[in-house]
Amino acid sequence: MNKRTLSKRLLPLTLAALLAACAAEPATRPAQAPPPAAPSPVSPAPASTSSSAPVAAPEVVGNVWNRLRGSFQMADCGADPAVMSWARRYTRYPQGFEAALRDALPQLTYVQQVAAEHDVAGEFVLLPWIESEFRPIPARRGRPAGMWQIMPATATAMGLHIDRRYDARLDVQAAADAVMKLLRRYYDEFHDWRVVDFAYNAGEYQVRRMMQTHGLPPQEPVVPRWPVRGITREHLTKLLAMACVVREPEHFGVELPLLEPDQHLVPVPLPHSMTMARAADKAGMPLDALKALNAAFRNGMADANAAPYLMMPVNHAQQFQHALLAQAAVANATPRTGSAAEFGTEAPARRDPPARTHRVVAGESLWQLAHRYAVSVQDLQRWNRLHGARIKPGQLLKISAPM
Predict the structure, then answer these.
(1) Which residue has the higher pLDDT, 178 or 382?
(2) Do 17 and 46 sit in the same domain of this protein?
(3) For 257-342, where are the E strands, in sequence order?
(4) Could you please report the per-residue DSSP string of 19-80?
(5) How many other C-beta atoms lie within 10 A of the C-beta of residue 342?
(6) What is the pLDDT of residues 265-313, one digit of tens each?
(7) Residues 279 and 200 reside in one and the same domain
(8) DSSP assignment, residue 222?
(9) pLDDT > 70: what percent of the chain?
(10) Which residues have a Cβ under 8 Å from the Cβ of 347 and sit 6 or more positions away?
């Protein structure tokens, strides 16, 4: 796995110290995969105070389309007539295609960063287009949900939490990280990205049986002639078709949109639970837009106990951060004689336990835990007296500082 520093994707976590005076509730979570060892149930930690740097766009080199083309690892447009046919079908109405792609670009760009971190073939950045056109498909009983269209049982196997208030399948950050981790695991087992796509759509058990019977498929034809369902074969064809459009947009008469730096998505620390309406007001963005980017929160409440962050474009994340800092400064300077409502808080103050912990399960890394709990790798090392990044299954780690 290509492990970048956490700071390239997480906002600097600056709010907890200034917000301590506020009376607020503390922050305390496609293919069928076999359930891995279940992660220890633990509430996310509050935001760290280790940095006071301002919010900034992620450091990226070139535009997303150039990065994607450079990371593609499967066949090009001429590999199969069906690939070209689907590419033409996607771009039949160029203006509509470009508009839909423009709407999806913040999520697509974020997913590209996650795929690069996990060293996953660039074609899979386009997987949510095949599944949902990057739309946050709402959850229904027993049905797939989110832009990745993940089934409930698969979500459990992937460590994505679902309850009546929060569904991690619709969490842009959590779901992207879990899916890319799954795809990387498939590739490490099957050593063929085409087979990885089959496993995502048809299930790894079926693919394993196919491998035992037929062995690793040859490079041609590009869509392996395995006795899989037509929908599974078509899934790979569609993925290659979208990659074809990205490779040669001019061939299809379309222009791929670009994303301004201040429109890149970033997770901004959520120091305490609040209504989505209140968060949208502080961020200066439409409520519907904020809800669409944070569809994992099901009841209009951004629950910091479920996920200690909100996804926002950089410019709105900056405004959100500044608004919270200003609120904290006012609270620090104001005698606390009134009710919690007078100080703009959502709930009575409650004391955190001395420190929260996490029991390491197989396959987890220090970087992944820092990412999950919105803290820095350096803080995890300091709190646990670690001299490197190595951790082992069964190890109990502190994931917040003692009070």
Answers:
(1) 178
(2) yes
(3) 265-269, 274-275, 301-302, 309-313
(4) HTTS--PBP---------PPPPP-PPPPPP-S--PPP------S-HHHHHHHH--S--GGG-
(5) 12
(6) 999 999 999 999 999 999 999 999 999 999 999 989 999 999 999 999 9
(7) no
(8) S
(9) 78
(10) 23, 24, 25, 272, 273, 340
Q: Are residues 47 and 72 in the same domain?
A: no
Distance between CA atoms of residues 266 and 107, nearest Å? 10
Report the C-alpha gap between 298 and 291 in whole angstroms.
9
* Cα–Cα distance measured from residue 205 to residue 199, given in angstroms and rounded to the nearest whole number: 8
**Residue 96 pLDDT > 70:** yes
More confident position, 330 or 210: 210
- pLDDT of 371: 67
Burial of 96 (C-beta count, 10 Å sphere; 0-12/13-18/19+): exposed
Assign 309 to helix, strand or coil: strand
State how beta strands 309-313 and 265-269 pair: antiparallel
Owner of token pair 């199969």: 80
Supply 115's token pair: 């795929």
- Write down how long the chain is: 403
Write phi, then psi, for 21 (nearest 5 degrees).
Answer: -75, -15
pLDDT confidence tier of residue 370, bands split at 50, 70 and 90: confident
Out of 62-76, 195-209, 316-330, 359-373, least confident range: 359-373
What is the rounded CA–CA span in Å between residue 284 and residue 316? 6
Which of 196, 229, 252 is the last residue before a domain boundary?
252
pTM: 0.71
What does the block give as tokens for 118? 């996990």
365 and 271 share one domain:
yes
Q: To the nearest 10°, the Cα dihedral for 357, 359, 363, 367?
A: 10
Q: Is the pLDDT of residue 250 over 70?
A: yes
User: How many Cα atoms are found within 13 Å in the side-chain-facing hemisphere of 98?
Assistant: 12
Task: Quickly list DSSP for 77-96.
Answer: GGG-HHHHHHHHHHTSSHHH
pLDDT at 143 over 70: yes
Determine the structural domain holding residue 217 and report its residue range.
64-252
User: Do 348 and 367 fall within a single domain?
Assistant: yes
Token pair, residue 259, equals 């994303």
Give the Cα separation of 10 and 15 in Å (integer).
13
Count of domains for the chain: 2
C-alpha closest to that of 149 among 29, 30, 294, 295:
30
